[in-house]
Amino acid sequence: MAEKKRGANGGGTIRRRSNGRWEARITIGADPGTGKPIRKSYYGKTQKEAREKMQHAAVAVTDGEYFEPSKMTVGQWLDTWSAEYLNGVKPRTVESYKSSIKYHIKPKIGAVKLSALTPVDVQRLYNGLVNQSTGAPLSPKTKKNVHGCLHSALEKAVRLGLIRHNPADKPDLPRVERPEIKPLDASEMTAFMDTVKGHKYESIYLVTLFTGMREGEVLGLTWDCINFDAGTITIKQQLQKQRGTNGQHALVSTKNGKSRTINPASYVMAVLRTQKQRQLEQRIRAGGAWSNPLNLVFTNAAGEHLCAQTVYLHFKKLAAAAGVPAARFHDLRHSYAVAALQSGDDIKTVQENLGHHTAAFTLDVYGHVTEEMRQASAERMDKFIEGLARAKHA
Length: 394
Known about the structure:
Blueprint lengths: L2 E4 L6 E4 L5 E9 L6 E8 L2 H16 L11 H11 L6 H19 L9 H9 L12 H20 L26 H11 L5 H8 L5 H5 L6 E2 L4 E4 L2 E4 L7 E4 L7 E3 L3 H21 L21 H14 L8 H13 L4 H8 L4 H7 L1 H26 L2
Antiparallel strand pairs: 1-2, 2-3, 3-4, 5-6, 6-9, 7-8
Helix pairs in contact: 2-3, 2-5, 3-5, 12-13
């Protein structure tokens, strides 16, 4: 028969099992459904060892810091997280997360107990990430995406009390080098505007060039977001293709999840008025075939949404004809930002118009432009001081 004793200070019980090992039991809480006490056992080769483990747990319970480690594996938790906790995430982001889980995370650490996962395990995972097809190391950007997925999943596990700390909190990741931006200069803008004149997508390119909207934002622009009386455009969504849905598109929130209202140049509003008239003419010609359920500003002749790839391919041909074959559609956004800064817009206004999270990010991206502006400012001040000196000695 097992020998049974009271624990230190009456906290829990200790007994010697038939196999010679000592077991210490303590109540760690109550079942929220039944109200019955939940007990936890701690084992040791000696009575002292078992008692010390129990006393350590007793202190944690008393201080409200007791933590019951999860028994599920990392893979099991990732399956639960991706199925139940991504309801407010954009569809493309969900697809990216599920891809990271399937091809990069679960094959390496899926079998590890969630409560046993360590920062070293996570770092080793990132260090060994490779392309499944070629075996080449993943790019820093892709590694960052995998990290974003794993960190988000583990952070939710922390908030739910499944683990105490997030082991993916402070990894060493390779620096993601931002590609050099190549905005169009004034002469290139003029050449591009001349080239697109009369093209069926002319208004799309001009609105993008002079507002800095992202591709998905301009393609997802709806008429209710344009206030011709106030001269404003509200950017609150983007058109995004839903993968695995036979090419279906949907309007989703902007990249940072926030809406913004801009006051573009009157030239932009004039372009949009022309586009409204053009779309009305298309609708009349299409008759019963017209269908624009999303109320999009930019559509094809039947009122359907435009394909980003088609708009991009036309852009590349036009850019080449304008003498800037290396230009990307996104460079129109950069061109707007640089032109705005050089025209005298303050960095906060440019940040808000672009929809960046912070002005610091805008400064980081366009730092070379602001440096040129500071130099130009110093040169203007030199000329002003020289003018004062000449006036003094006149």
